[in-house]
Amino acid sequence: MPISISQKQSPPNHDHPVATSVVPIDPYPAERKPPVVPVLPQKPGPQITPGARPPRLGWLILSPYAVFLGWLAAVFLSIDLPRWPTIATFITATGLSALVCLPREVSPGRQRLPILVVLVLPWIVSIIADLPQNALAFANWMLPFQISLLAASALLPLILLPLMQGARRFTAVLGFFNFVVTFLLVLTSILLLYPDS
Questions:
Q1: 27-37: per-residue pLDDT in tens?
Q2: What is the pTM of this model?
């Protein structure tokens, strides 16, 4: 006698979902995996102020110093150099050097450039003090006063260098130019005060 067995399927229970596990597919099989390259620590680069002009054309930056030292060597060796071409060469070299070292507009040093106006004070005061009426009225203390102006023109750039972050090369070039101008004016003043020296 046949026996019928009825199988009844129970509907899925959505209240208790069956937990399933998702196995990620490896996009790189074992035979195609790229080699692992070790990453070595990198040395930190030079600290550059944001917006500062990167150093370039080092020979052009040093050109005014070379022209001045060449002129001094010619003086000590009694070599007669043409005056105005030498002055024009020094001014041109200083201008190109200052242009290379000029900080960019986004540099914080660009905002501090008006401070450098104090660098011109020594040789302006030297010109005023060297006027005939002043030179005759204060002839006794004119020599130490002119020498103190020369010392001030040398010390002012050194004092301003820590403050001129982002424009230190420009400060050095401009300070050296003002020192040379003051040096020539003081030398002229000494020769006028003591023509036999």
A1: 555 555 566 66
A2: 0.64
